[in-house]
# Entry
Amino acid sequence: MPRATAVNAMEQLGATSLPQGYAYEWTGTAYQQKLAQGKEGFIFGLAGVLVFLFLAALYESWAIPFAVVLAVPLGLFGALLAVHLRS
# Structure
């Protein structure tokens, strides 16, 4: 059972089974998961910007990182196309 499913099941049980005046609180990994929920797009975008900036610093150029960053999806597309054509 994935963690998100278990957390949702516990929340449903808590909402229906706990007596009046009782509550629950998440800690540890479940708490961190609840805090980060819905922020995936921002995190991936920030990671992409940081990768570009690191590559710009490495190559001391603003143009070369575009070629490096765009070569990865192009290579993956070529590999998937070759697998698809082979089967």
